[in-house]
Amino acid sequence: MTGDAWLGAAPQETLGYLLLDFNAYFASVEQQLDKNLRGRPVAVVPLMADSTCCIAASYEAKAFGVTTGVGVAQARRLCPELVLIEARHAVYVEFHQRALKVIDQVVPLQEVLSIDEMRCALPARWQSPSRARQIGVQLKEAICDELGACMRTSVGIAPNGLLAKLASEMQKPDGLVILQAQDLPAKIAALPAQRLSGIGPRMAQRLAAYGVHSIGQLWQLNPAQMRIIWGGVAGLDFYDRLRGLERRLPARERQSITHSHVLPPHERTLAGALGVLDRLMQKAAMRLRKENLLATAMYLGVRMVDRHKWSAEIRFAATNSTPALLATLRDLWDKDFLMLAQQKRQPLKVGIGLFGLRQPHQTTADLFEQPTTRPDVAAVLDRLNQRFGKNTVYFGSAHHSRDSAPMRIAFNRIPDIETEA
Ligand SMILES: [Mg+2]
C-alpha cells in the first residue's frame, strides 16, 4: 500500500454509522428508579467511604463541578446537597440488556462498546440525512418510552465509526448530531485533537510537538506527515478515517475462531452433538482459509442438560484443511467424549475453537500431508460454496446437521455473510 492510493481515495458520502451513548448512565438509572432523586444532584460511588470517588454524576451534580473521578470529600465541598448512592451493578446490567433489545428493534445493533455505548449500522435506505435524523429521534424516543424518561442519550450519526463517536460527544445531554462528509472539517475543526478516539494523551503530546492541537490542524497534515507522526501505516489509516472513510487495516489480529450452538431437542444425543460439532468445524475451517490462516490447536466443549461441562484440547501441526481438522475432531471426540455414553448424559450445547493461529509464512508445510488434505481441494470446495450457495458441497459427516447452527449475531462480532450458514 502506498501513500498515492490514499490520496486518490474518494470521499465517503453515506451515513452508515450510528453511535448511541447514554448520558450519565449509572446516575440516570438511579434517578429513573427513584422519583425522589430526579432533578437532584446525584453521584454514584463504588462504596460508601470518604476515600472513594464518583463513578457517575447526574447533570444536576455536574453543574456543581462534580464529575466522574472527583473524590467524595471534594464532591461534597463542591455540592453540599449531593446525594451519594452506592453502585448497583446488577441493576445497571439489567437496564443495559433491556436497552440492547429496544435498540435492536429500531436499528440493527452492530457492536456493544461498553455498558452505556452502542454502535449501530444504518441500512442503505436510511442513510439520507433527513431519514437518518428521523431514525435517531425514533431511537431516542423508543429508549425513553421503554426504559423511562430519565434514560437520555446522545446520538451521533456519521460515515464511519470514528466520526459517529465524535458526533455523539458533541452535544450532551440529549444530543443528536449528524456529521456528513461535506461538513468536514468545518464542524469539527475547533475541537481538540484529543476528542478523537484513538488519540490518547501520548499521541496528543506527539501531535503537539508538531504544532497540532486542534482537529482543524490535524486535518491540514498530508498522509506522508501522518505516517511519520504515527510511525507507520496507522497514520494513513487515521488520515482516511478522519475524512469519513472506512478502516482499511484489520482492526487487530485474530486470536481464535470459535463457534457454538445450542442443540435443538431432536439433536440432543451424542451422535447429534458430534454432527453439529462437525458442521461448526467446517465453518471454522472455511473461515480460516478465507483469512489465510492456519490453526495449531483445537478446543471442543459440550455442555449437558444437567449443566455438567466437558471440554478437551489438542495441539497439532499447522493446518487449515477441513479433512485434517475433522479427523482431529474425531480423534479428540473418541478419546475424551465417548465415555459420556456410559453416563447417559444429554448434551445441550456444543462449541469448537481453533487457536494458535498462524499465517502461512510463519510455519513450514507438513511434508507428509496426505493428498486428500491438500489445501487446493478445500479451496475448490470454498469457491463452490461461495458461488452456488452454502452447503452446496460439504463433507459427508455433517450431512444430517447441515441446517443446524444458523447465523446469529454475537454482541462482539459482526456476522460474515459469506461464511455464516
Ligand atoms: Mg455515557
TrEMBL record:
GO cellular component, one term: cytosol
Highest taxon listed in the record's lineage: Bacteria
PROSITE patterns, alphabetized: UMUC
Keyword annotations from UniProtKB, A to Z: DNA-directed DNA polymerase, Nucleotidyltransferase, Transferase
Pfam families referenced in this protein's UniProt entry, alphabetically: IMS (PF00817), IMS_C (PF11799)
SUPFAM superfamilies: DNA/RNA polymerases (SSF56672), Lesion bypass DNA polymerase (Y-family), little finger domain (SSF100879)
MF-aspect GO terms: damaged DNA binding; DNA-directed DNA polymerase activity
Any GO BP annotation: SOS response
Domain UmuC as annotated: residue spans: 17-200
InterPro entries with a match to the protein in the record: DNA/RNA_pol_sf, DNA_pol_Y-fam_lit_finger_sf, DNA_pol_Y-fam_little_finger, DNA_polymerase-Y, Rev_trsase/Diguanyl_cyclase, UmuC
Family, per entry: Belongs to the DNA polymerase type-Y family.
Name recorded for this polypeptide: DNA-directed DNA polymerase
Organism placement in taxonomy: Bacteria, Pseudomonadati, Pseudomonadota, Betaproteobacteria, Burkholderiales
